User: What shape does this take?
Amino acid sequence: MGLNPVGKSMLPKVQALIAASLGALLSACQPFGLINLLVSRSGYDLHRGLAYGDDPRQRLDIYVPRGLKAPAPVLLFFYGGSWQLGTRGDYLALGQAFASAGIVTAVADYRLYPQVKYPGFVEDAARALAWLHAHAGEYGGDGARIFVSGHSAGAYNAVMLASEPQFLQAKGGSLDWIKGVIGIAGPYNFLPMHDPAYIDMFHGANNIDSMPVHHVNGARPPMLLITGEQDATVAPHNSDDMARSLESFGNSVRVIRYPGIGHTGVILSLVPGFRGTTALRQDMLDFIHAH
Assistant: This one.
């Protein structure tokens, strides 16, 4: 007697279980590069290692959809890794996910602790955005339609960049360079800090200047804040707190919580074969097209 195939109604649950198991493995040893084996290399051109600054960590990769008929929206993405690790080359799945939908996609490295402390990594985010604003047209993108996104620590970078105007002003820009922000499982309000590395990185256990929620005091770009309800790494209240801060000044913000999804599982749902575990890709595309 043969085994019954998995029914369509069970497939998302099976995918979620596999994603959770893979997420636990990745959280332990960080071999995100292995995921690249699942990603198609067709349909886009990849420009690697473009310098937006002098430091070796100030580099980005740009994924350009083939066959563009007009300048396309641009997505600038910052990955997570506790501001202490990560590399842009491991995010081929993210680049492909959005380039395949006609979005020019940039994935940026940034300087990490202990090389820099706050606000060094946010200053790098501003520098990367300024470079992209100036050069997007060379890669088929529309420099007037740039969206900024990130996962975990990268979401902090993206949201802080859009919350505190001084970062872009220091690079000759302004918040209107950002058409929208998508924060995925980001820490925006996590005081007091207890980890010694974070205390050193952010200049104290209770430095309110280091929290994005305390930098909203007027109009800010529209934001989509996404979290998994089972996130045990970055508490979902961070997204709720950030939303309340934005709403208190009349800003446009939406919070989406995915049930049964944890911190790594949410970003894994952009990987081919796991995209059914959440609606992340479609929710991001809907936000980009709406703004």
Residues 1-11, 13-31 have pLDDT under 50 and may be disordered. The beta strands are 44-51, 59-65, 72-78, 104-108, 141-151, 178-184, 223-228, 253-258. Residues 230 and 262 are 5 Å apart (CA to CA).
